[in-house]
Structure formats: structure tokens, C-alpha cells
Prior knowledge:
Rossmann fold; 3 domains; 6-stranded mixed beta sheet; 5-stranded parallel beta sheet; 46% helix
Amino acid sequence: MNDPTLAPQWQKLVNHSNTIADLVTLFENNDRRTEDLLIDFEGVCFDYSKQLIDKSTKKLLIEFAEQMGLSDAIDKLISGYKVNTTENRPALHTALRLPKGASLIVDDIDVTKQVHQSLDSMAVIVERLTSGTWRGYSGKAIQDVVNIGVGGSDLGPLMTCMALSEWTGEEQITQEGLFYNCIETHFVSNMDGTQLDKLLSTLNPETTAFIISSKSFTTSDTLSNAQTALAWLSNNYDNEKSIKRNHFIGISANVKKMNAWGIHKANQLNLWDWVGGRFSMWSSIGLTVAIKIGMKNFNELLAGAHLMDKHFIETPFTDNIPVMMGLLAVWNSSFLDINAHAILPYDGRLKYFPNYLTQLEMESNGKSVNLKGQKITFNTCPILWGEVGSNAQHAFYQLLHQGTQEVACDFIAFINRYDEERQDIDQQLLLQHKLSLANCLAQSRVLAFGNEAVDLQEVCSAMSAMHKNYRGNQPSSTILIDKLSPKTLGMILAMYEHKVYVMSVMWGINPFDQWGVEIGKVMAKQLNDAIHQQSLDYDDSTNALLKRICNL
Ligand SMILES: O=P(O)(O)OC[C@H]1O[C@](O)(CO)[C@@H](O)[C@@H]1O
């Protein structure tokens, strides 16, 4: 069934949404609420008791999922069925983390074999770089690696390198018998060259390599940055062939384009059209991550994701974290009309996590047409944004507490952070971590219960109560994890990937295409020509702006 409004439980959920009590009442009415609405799985605790639901909401949502054929849809995803209907291909990111020895035959090909061959090729490159045997044009070992990519070819690896920077590659002994420290990794995505310009001024061309990460190898942002990098190297050494051989690695599903650009065969890593860009971090697109944290840790990341895949596939809906996350997101958006979702990690290492999720969720589910091509009549993906929670408290939490918008929030925190044995910091960092956890709990409490959570006497002593009114009733989930590690990060990322898929199944949409971004690319090409040719063939506004840009 594609149109969820035809499912018998849809109308029941609509009616039910008008009767749902506020969070204070929901907690008062059930003193076992958190037992009912919390799932623990392998060090990941998902507490959704502060969502605006009661027992019957959960029951109705699960029945709704059954009516929408969610079990069958999960089977189809995992087994390589062509779930990406508009592009007629599977979305097999789960195959990227299948263990060695597993087998998954799709169109007569064992994709697991392909995946592990690619991981082996990655391992060779990682080894050559981190052991110092990969040399630049002048014979010096490479010390800096710059990932040039955008969207899925940037956000996942960037976020993971930041999150796992404490798991940097192990020191190795080079052929000369020296210890070689971890390679520095950098990321460049901006089309305008700002990042690259600044970064290049700090790098040595003799010891810098570039990874051109682009599934399509046609993305103008990436290719223009790659050309600038090539020009920078060519200014320093006049032998393009040698530069390309020693300083450029290509990662793409488009081998023809990599060849045409001049990426040496031995420096090419492949992926497949069945890997969606925003789901590609587990493939060779994760090379920069593997360079940063080492292949062993990269494999741990994959193993964590695989563990979550198994949980998603095998666990009954009621105890299934991604399923419940997805159903709650659908409930908030389509039934409660809550169209904003804030991602609030209380850990600086997850700084780029909200950015990564904006693409994962909004590029996947920002759709208004169902699988049959019919217009949708309900709200789909909310607007997602976020920031490290404690920073956000001093930026946009005012709106969460007292604005007119309803916003659902995800609080994310790790129970354990710093090594208790560390002497150098005098326990101060441990105190900071506890302070951060306290803030996380405090904010979710005030958002849920408003005035009921604080001592109003004190707060309202001086000013009008209205200005100090905390309305509460903002729904949130808290994801509390034992500690951050490659494994738990893999679990969390896979958890959100599956949440996105669940939402799409419930809405009857295809989360694996992104036609909405294509027209902008075509139009940009035309306007680039217009700027170069100084032509004014557009609407009044665009022509007026072009005149100024071209000084006409
Ligand atoms: O890896 P590529 O092909 O350069 O694409 C980069 C990004 O551009 C998009 O296609 C959107 O324009 C994303 O889906 C993708 O992750």
C-alpha cells in the first residue's frame, strides 16, 4: 500500500491525535511510563517517554506499520530488491557492512565479495599512506590528505573524522625504521574555493595528496576544487602525469570519468550505483576516515553498523529502536503537525552530526510525491537542524522554550567520556563532562514539563510571570550511549539510516532519489554561461543581478 491515508489506522491516528494529553498529564497517568517507552540495545538506550504518545498511540502506530507492509519493506531493502524505483536500483548500504564470508547475491553477483575486495584495496592505500611509503613527486612521504567532495561524499566522512579523532591511526615503523605519525586529514567541499584557498596556504605541495570523492564524478563543486588543487601542484612541479600519479586518488562509481580526468588506475577506488550518496560513508567514500582512524577501527565502525542492521531486521517493532524512531517522526510530523526537528548532541565530538543528518533525512524524505507519482496530502520530512546542545542553549533554545513553533528534539549524550585515570587534567574535564550531562537532562526536562519542572516562585519573583513562562510540552527523545567508539558511532549512524527508511515506507515515498536538486544544477550551468558571455536572457530580477555582476 503506497497511500498511507488509505490504511485503516490512518484515520484512527488522526482522531487519536486530537485526544492526546500533555506530557505532564501523560507522566502523571502512568508511573511505569519510562519502562514502557524505553529500549536498551547493546549500550544504546533510546528513551522516548518524553514524546507525546501514550500506550494506545504506540499500539496504533505499530498496527499502522504492519498495514503499510513495513516488515516486507525491510526484507526488500536488505535483500537487494530495487527499492529505489525511480532509478530502478537497490539501496544496499547494509551490504557494505556485511562481514567477510557472508553472501548476498543480487542480479547473479555476490555483492559481499565486491565489497570486501574494495575494502582490501582501501586497506592497501591506507597502509601505503600511513606507513609513509606513498611518496609525492619529490620523493617525500605524504603527510596531509585532503578529501575533496560534497554532500554524501563529504558530510559522513567529515563528521566521522571529527567524532573519532581520538582513535587516530596507530604509529607505524617505516621502511627506514622511523616512527611515522598519523596523516593529517582535511576536508574541502565549498564551491567558491574559500576552504581550499585557505587550506592550501598551510600545506606543502610535495607532501599533500588529494582524494577526489564523487560517486558521479560530475559534480561541479568537486571537480572545480580538484582543478584548483591540480593547478596548485602544477605551479610547483611541471609534470602533470607525475602529479596525478603521486598526488591524486579517485573514488567513484564512474570509472570512465575518473579515467578521463587522469586518475591513475592504481589510485582508483570504486563504488556501485546501488550505494546512495548519503548512505555511502561505509564504502570507499570512507577512505579518509580509514586513513584517520586506521583500517581496524574502520572495520569496527562497519561492525557497529551491522549490529544495528541485525537489530533492525530481527527485533519486533515494539522493541526496535529505528522502527520506533521512524514511527515517532511520522507521528510528530504527519499527525501532530510538528514540522521542525532539532538534533542536539551533548558532545563536541559530534559537532558535524546535525549537518550530516540534515542531508540524510531531508534529501531522502523531503518529498511531496508518493511511489506512484501522486501528490501527497500530508506533511512529510520536518525541517532538521541542530548544534552541539550546550552551544545551542546560548543560541536557539530560547525559541524551543518560548517561541511559537513546536519542535521535536533528539538529545544525544554519552555516559562515559574522559579516562578516569588521566592525571594531567586534575579531574577537571570529568567535571565538565558531568556538567554537560546535567545540562542535557535539565533541558529535556524543562522542554517536556515547562513550569512544572522549575520552581516558579524563584523565577517569577521580579517580573511578569508571562515573560518567564515555560510552556513545556515540546516532545523529545534521549539517546544515551555508554561511550563513543567506532562501534557505537556505527550503531548510531545505521540507526538513523533505518529511521529514515521507516519514515519513507510509512509515507509511501522513495527516500533514495533526489530529483529536486537536479534542476538547480542545469540552471547553474546556464547562468555560468550567462556570466561568461554577459547575456541577459532571464527574468527581471536575475537580469538586474547579472548586470551588476558583469558590470554592464
Ligand atoms: O558524490 P557526488 O556524485 O559528487 O554527489 C555529491 C552529492 O550531490 C548530490 O547528488 C546532490 O546534488 C547528493 O545526493 C550527493 O551526495
